[in-house]
Write a structure and sequence with these properties.
Layout: H1 2-19, H2 34-44, H3 46-49, H4 67-70, H5 74-83, H6 109-112
């Protein structure tokens, strides 16, 4: 979520700059702590999905440009992160388990948002 918020914010900022509109007038994502989100991603997700969300073949799918992620609602995405995906799940194309909460049981529901 923090990653999505950061991308959304940067896109809005760029659009505002190109349109000659003051960035303070641009639509803003919900408030969040992008730095905290980046830290959580680095510690819970990047091992399998890469620090740039590029993924690693046979381990973690790329997150950048992954429509199955970006088309989910926030609640659907949080549910997926909470539950993870078993290696034997038919939708798992890597054959590697995605552990619930990225393998960090201490991540709160709010952390996942």
């Amino acid at each position: 979520r923090h990653f999505k918020s950061l991308i959304c914010f940067l896109g809005c900022l760029l659009a505002a700059a190109c349109a000659g509109v003051d960035a303070s007038d641009a639509a803003r994502p919900e408030p969040g702590d992008a730095l905290a989100g980046a830290h959580l991603f680095a510690t819970a997700c990047a091992t399998c999905h890469g620090f740039a969300a590029e993924g690693f073949p046979g381990l973690g799918k790329p997150l950048r440009g992954n429509r199955s992620i970006w088309e989910k609602t926030e609640d659907q995405l949080v549910h997926f992160l909470k539950e993870g995906r078993a290696a034997e799940d038919l939708l798992n194309t890597t054959g590697v388990e995605m552990p619930p909460r990225g393998g960090d049981p201490d991540l709160s529901d709010q952390d996942l948002r």
